[in-house]
Amino acid sequence: MGVRIEPPVAVGALLEAFDGDVEPMDEGAQLVTALVGARPGESVALWGAGAAGGKALALAAAMENKGKLLVVDGDETRLAALGLRLRAAGVDNAQCHAAAGGGTAPDPWLKRKKRSVDRVLVDAPCSGGGLRRRDDGRRCATPPLEELLEAQAAALERAARLVRPGGTLVYATSSLDDEENDGQVARFLASEPGADFALAPPEGFDVKLDGAYLRPEPGAERDGYFAAVLRRQEGGWSR
What we know:
Layout: H1 11-16, H2 27-36, E1 43-47, H3 54-62, E2 68-73, H4 76-88, E3 94-98, H5 108-112, E4 117-123, H6 145-160, E5 163-173, H7 182-189, E6 197-199, E7 213-214, E8 226-232
Parallel strand pairs: 1-2, 1-4, 2-3, 4-5
Antiparallel strand pairs: 5-8, 6-8, 7-8
Helix pairs in contact: 2-3
């Protein structure tokens, strides 16, 4: 799935030689998308296109370009850039949707997809404190924690509506902050929308989990990140 090259090389120059067959992607992002467990022929949604769209490409690869991949984001410019990257990679099973009001307003398209998607990955907006590249002089401004927590909760609640009964919901950040991670999952499970979801560690996933969570220790050669897998029970919340 991934190749690690040592000693470090200029990735941009290296990729030119592969003519689009290889994409750069952080280890954490690769493991998070593997955790989703997407399979060919399924319906899979990614809530949040991310800065570069790598998770969408990884999900499409796991699906072998079969089934339906839905990418939902409130930023039309970001989705347009992702669309170009998907086409360049030969992905033709993806559909990008700009959520009304940035994902907070009523959206007829999303309403039609309610309780119909097999697997949903929430790539939540976060402080990004686990990313090594935030410590290499390229720091970016992030909203206050209170705003991030509100945005994360809204994304998790809206994305959960898409999950079919028996389907999988994965919540992921590149943060080390418990409030953005365990705390956010606990708040969701205690809410009305989360009432028919339960933590469900995946089977056959060959990476050590911290209980129900994917949370490898960050280090000099590894980013810090977090993911939780939840499964929707049959029946339950239908708003």
